[in-house]
């Protein structure tokens, strides 16, 4: 269960942008993830009107699904192309504005106001900028983060959630010596040490 040859692997921001430009986005799912549907009750915990965070959101269809249920969705994605594709594929009008606290960052918000997507590095965000969240849907973020950045990522996520929040995390299990990632293999023991 060691991280094998993945421990030193680094995928740059440019490589992620290139994946979007080339349409090499096998990680994007056209249908909502079955595990979110299965564990929706755990995420919502009987509550309505939640603020739900999508780290490294891409153009996840679940964002619109949860917004249509009355939740407030906030995502972060480094690819502006992915963010714009999300809005156009769902025929959602939006406005775009700079994020004064983050150089070069933009925030794209649906005109209905219930979906806000930040286009920047996730590590540039803080609760002072985006507030705190009642729930997190981490379908492909932790497994996409470079192994050397996992602690930094986990610390950020812990700081972005309210005390009684729910965090749904999807990981993949395989022999890390046979695949260089991403998605990266994150053993359960490491998840426990990262998030407590």
TrEMBL record:
GO terms for molecular function: thiopurine S-methyltransferase activity. It is an enzyme of class 2 (transferase). S-adenosyl-L-methionine binds at residues 16-27, 56, 77, 121-122, 139. InterPro entries: SAM-dependent_MTases_sf, Thiopurine_S-MeTrfase, TPMT. Its EC number is 2.1.1.67. Gene3D superfamilies: Vaccinia Virus protein VP39. Coiled coil: none annotated. One of its GO terms (cellular component) is cytoplasm. Its main location: cytoplasm. The keyword Endoplasmic reticulum does not apply. Keywords: Cytoplasm, Methyltransferase, S-adenosyl-L-methionine, Transferase. SUPFAM superfamilies: S-adenosyl-L-methionine-dependent methyltransferases. It is found in: Cytoplasm. The keyword Transcription regulation does not apply. It holds the Pfam family TPMT. It comes from the Eukaryota. GO terms for biological process: methylation. It catalyses: S-adenosyl-L-methionine + a thiopurine = S-adenosyl-L-homocysteine + a thiopurine S-methylether. Belongs to the class I-like SAM-binding methyltransferase superfamily. TPMT family. This is thiopurine S-methyltransferase. It comes from Sinosuthora webbiana. The gene is Tpmt.
């Amino acid at each position: 269960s060691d991280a094998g040859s993945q421990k030193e692997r680094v995928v740059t921001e440019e490589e992620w942008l290139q994946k979007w430009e080339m349409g090499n986005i096998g990680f994007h799912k056209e249908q909502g993830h079955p595990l979110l549907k299965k564990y929706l009750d755990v995420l919502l915990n009987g509550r309505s009107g939640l603020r739900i965070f999508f780290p490294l959101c891409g153009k996840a269809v679940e964002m619109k699904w949860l917004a249509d249920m009355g939740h407030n969705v906030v995502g972060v994605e480094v690819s502006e192309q992915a963010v714009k594709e999300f809005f156009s594929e769902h025929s959602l009008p939006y406005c775009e504005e700079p994020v004064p606290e983050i150089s070069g960052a933009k925030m794209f918000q649906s005109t209905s106001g219930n979906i806000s997507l930040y286009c920047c590095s996730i590590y540039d965000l803080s609760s002072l900028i985006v507030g705190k969240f009642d729930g997190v849907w981490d379908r492909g973020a932790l497994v996409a983060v470079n192994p050397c950045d996992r602690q930094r990522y986990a610390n950020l996520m812990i700081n972005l959630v309210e005390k009684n929040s729910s965090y749904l995390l999807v990981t993949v299990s395989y022999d890390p010596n046979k695949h260089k990632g991403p998605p990266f293999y994150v053993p359960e023991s490491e998840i426990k040490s990262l998030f407590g």
